[in-house]
Amino acid sequence: MNENNAPGVTEITATGANPLKKYFRQPKLYITLPSKGSWYRQGSIQMTENNELPVFAMTAKDELTLKTPDALLNGAATVEIIQSCIPNIKDAWAMPSIDVDACLIAIRIASYGDQMDLTIQPPMAKEEKIFALDLKQLLETMGQFNFIEDVAMSSPDFQVKVRPVSYKEFTQAQLTTFEEQRMFTIVNDAEMNEEEKLEKFGKTFSKLRDLTVGIITDSIVSITAGDDIVTNRQHINDFISNAEKGVFDDITKHIEIQKENFAVKPMTAASDPEDIAKGAPETYEVPIVFDQANFFADRS
């Protein structure tokens, strides 16, 4: 016993069970993923018997991670936060992108509570208004949809199954698009002749076009034609490259519909009587945009 210790207090110096472990953070809520745990790579998630995953509040380290600009841009911060606060997700890069918003909302609830204040500008109003968003209700709404794999094709000759893109694929596409758009701006401002500009523009547009086609193609799980079920990536790539435009349009439309189903819907706000008297609508829609740099910025 250390002579400097208070009477009756024992100093534990040997390694072993941490007596502070009972004070470690505990799950604040449980979440059912919009994907229901489907489309995860083997070993990237540990599902529970009831398919509900525990969600923990953020640690101080987690909050500091969110303040790293580069980590926010390339998705690394999101991955670290999700794996820290939802430890059943072992590799968040592999998670379907339709699960990301739901996970971040659940972590926000676990860390700061059910409500989040949004500052909005009502039509016809001079002053901004604070709107309290019920995150728990929003989370429940997001879990009501199911991702539909089967594409309704115009042609009866084959069937197509698709999957949601992973968070890794989504982030890479976002970064590539950002870089190409930035290059477009640089070229537009550069002191070069029109011929050089046209060449640079052409290369940029080609890369963005190939990116769009690549994302759709990579989303295809299988194509069934007659008795043949094709899953070979090269065969699928060759098919999309040589099929009529209508085939690609059918698949793209289906994926866009699925994406919209899982997107965060705008909230409906009511105008004040005095604003209505000035011509404002009785209700209006306000887009809910989650900027990760601000989403966890305070406890509002």
Structure description:
The chain is of the alpha+beta class. It is 43% helix and 14% strand. The protein has eleven helices and ten strands. The protein has helices at residues 60-65, 69-74, 76-85, 100-112, 135-142, 167-189, 194-219, 233-242, 245-262, 273-277, 292-295, and strands at 29-31, 53-55, 115-120, 129-134, 150-151, 158-162, 220-225, 228-230, 267-270, 283-286. It has a four-stranded antiparallel β-sheet with strand order 5-6-7-8. A two-stranded antiparallel sheet has the order 1-2. The protein has a two-stranded antiparallel ribbon with strand order 3-4. Strand 3 (115-120) and strand 4 (129-134) form a beta hairpin. Helix 4 (100-112) runs antiparallel to helix 5 and helix 6 (167-189) runs antiparallel to helix 7 (194-219). The model has no long low-confidence stretch (mean pLDDT 85).
Keywords:
alpha+beta, 300 residues, two-stranded antiparallel ribbon, 11 helices, single chain
What does the secondary structure layout of this molecule look like, with pairings?
Blueprint: E1 29-31, E2 53-55, H1 60-65, H2 69-74, H3 76-85, H4 100-112, E3 115-120, E4 129-134, H5 135-142, E5 150-151, E6 158-162, H6 167-189, H7 194-219, E7 220-225, E8 228-230, H8 233-242, H9 245-262, E9 267-270, H10 273-277, E10 283-286, H11 292-295
Helix pairs in contact: 4-5, 6-7
What percent of residues are in strands?
Answer: 5-15%
Largest sheet: 4 strands, antiparallel
- Main-sheet strand order equals 5-6-7-8
Class per helix and strand makeup: alpha+beta
* Overall mean confidence score, pLDDT: 85
Radius of gyration using CA atoms only: 25 Å
Helix content: 40-55%
The shape is globular
